[in-house]
């Protein structure tokens, strides 16, 4: 088929935004407070040689809702859309879960999207994929026209202070504006999300402490399912490597980053990541990379993107779109 024959569902991504907290934490700061000077072999099997030079840390005022609102505001400006035009606001977050209330209504209030239905989704690091998929169904119903999908996470509160997980977890938010226009020449082409409960054990965050615990099986499964997601989206839409302009995968850890990078046939010059200076920002990772590079002028109209993700649950999936 090829990229020129791709048809969307009539929903375009018209705006991109992101927010980074004010504070940057360096590796030196974390090394200074490590409880153990050497990484346990089980940790090494998940974290590898770290691969992150710095990461952002939210302060007390930079809540998940606050960061979501800042990213959403940037995306609204990029799309030239007024806040009151938004009628759907989806916030993907798992790091700040309450019993009640959802975070999205407050984030929507802070954004000024007073006419939007706002709610949370919590599917770990696949939250952005899930959010885009869910928003698409609302927009295709004909009752909603414009949506915000934002991933906002504070991974730093879900890793043990003084542990090696601190190196990987980052805080940030990324957002996109989705609009139903009916124009099928550009926009969302394909997306999917699958679960596998047989792998629910490989990454958990159990109560009462709520700290992330990963097992070595995480890495091969994360790599394999990320590559599987890429292949599914390409095969289902008749795409060759040459048809794909940009690959934007969720990173996980440096071992996953390298495994996906080396395992796919999509060349490295088409792969985008900010893992080295952001770490793993979970549901925010993909929209942040998209926003950063869009605002740098890296993309052009008609570019084709594949964005795969995996996450605790176990989930895997991805989004294919044409700018």
Structural overview:
The structure is a single chain. This protein is α/β, with parallel strands linked by helices. The protein has a single domain (1-323), classed as Peroxisomal Thiolase, Chain A, domain 1 (3-Layer(aba) Sandwich), CATH 3.40.47.10. 31% of the residues lie in helices and 24% in strands. The protein is built from 10 helices and 13 strands. The protein has helices at 27-32, 41-47, 64-79, 104-111, 127-140, 165-168, 218-236, 254-263, 275-278, 285-295; strands spanning 11-19, 23-26, 54-57, 88-92, 117-121, 146-154, 171-180, 187-195, 203-204, 213-214, 246-247, 304-311, 315-322. A 5-stranded mixed sheet has the order 1-7-6-4-5, with helices on both faces. The chain has a 4-stranded mixed sheet with strand order 8-13-12-11, sandwiched between helices. It has a two-stranded antiparallel sheet with strand order 2-3. It is globular. The two termini are 18 Å apart. The model has no long low-confidence stretch (mean pLDDT 96).
Observed structural traits:
323 residues; alpha/beta; 5-stranded mixed sheet; 4-stranded mixed sheet; 13 strands; 31% helix; 24% strand
List the helices and strands and how they pair.
Elements (H helix, E strand, L loop, with lengths): L10 E9 L3 E4 H6 L8 H7 L6 E4 L6 H16 L8 E5 L11 H8 L5 E5 L5 H14 L5 E9 L10 H4 L2 E10 L6 E9 L7 E2 L8 E2 L3 H19 L9 E2 L6 H10 L11 H4 L6 H11 L8 E8 L3 E8 L1
Parallel strand pairs: 4-5, 4-6, 11-12
Antiparallel strand pairs: 1-7, 2-3, 6-7, 8-13, 9-10, 12-13
Helix pairs in contact: 3-4, 7-8
């Amino acid at each position: 088929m090829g990229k020129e024959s791709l048809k969307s569902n009539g929903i375009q991504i018209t705006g991109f935004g992101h927010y980074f907290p004010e504070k940057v934490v360096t590796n030196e700061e974390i090394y200074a407070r490590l409880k153990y000077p050497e990484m346990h072999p089980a940790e090494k099997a998940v974290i590898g040689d770290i691969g992150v030079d710095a990461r952002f840390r939210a302060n007390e005022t930079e809540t998940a809702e606050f960061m979501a609102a800042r990213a959403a505001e940037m995306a609204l400006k990029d799309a030239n859309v007024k806040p009151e035009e938004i009628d759907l606001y989806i916030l993907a977050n798992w790091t700040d879960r309450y019993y009640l209330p959802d975070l999205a209504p407050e984030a929507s209030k802070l954004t000024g999207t007073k006419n939007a239905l706002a709610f949370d989704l919590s599917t770990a690091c696949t939250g952005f994929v899930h959010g885009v998929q869910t928003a698409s169904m609302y927009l295709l119903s004909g009752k909603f026209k414009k949506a915000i999908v934002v991933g906002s996470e504070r991974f730093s509160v879900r890793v043990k202070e003084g542990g090696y997980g601190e190196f990987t977890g980052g805080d940030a938010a990324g957002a996109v504006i989705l609009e139903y226009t009916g124009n099928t020449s550009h926009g969302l082409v394909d997306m999917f999300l699958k679960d596998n409960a047989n792998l629910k054990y490989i990454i958990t965050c159990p109560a009462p402490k709520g700290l992330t615990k990963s097992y070595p099986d995480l890495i091969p499964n994360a790599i394999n399912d990320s590559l599987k997601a890429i292949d599914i989206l390409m095969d289902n839409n008749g795409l060759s490597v040459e048809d794909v302009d940009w690959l934007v995968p969720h990173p996980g850890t440096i071992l996953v980053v390298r495994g996906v990078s080396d395992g796919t046939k999509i060349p490295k010059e088409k792969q985008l990541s900010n893992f080295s200076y952001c770490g793993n920002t979970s549901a925010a990772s993909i929209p942040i990379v998209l926003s950063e590079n869009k605002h740098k002028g890296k993309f052009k109209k008609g570019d084709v993107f594949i964005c795969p993700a995996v996450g605790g649950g176990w989930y895997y999936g991805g989004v294919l779109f044409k700018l």
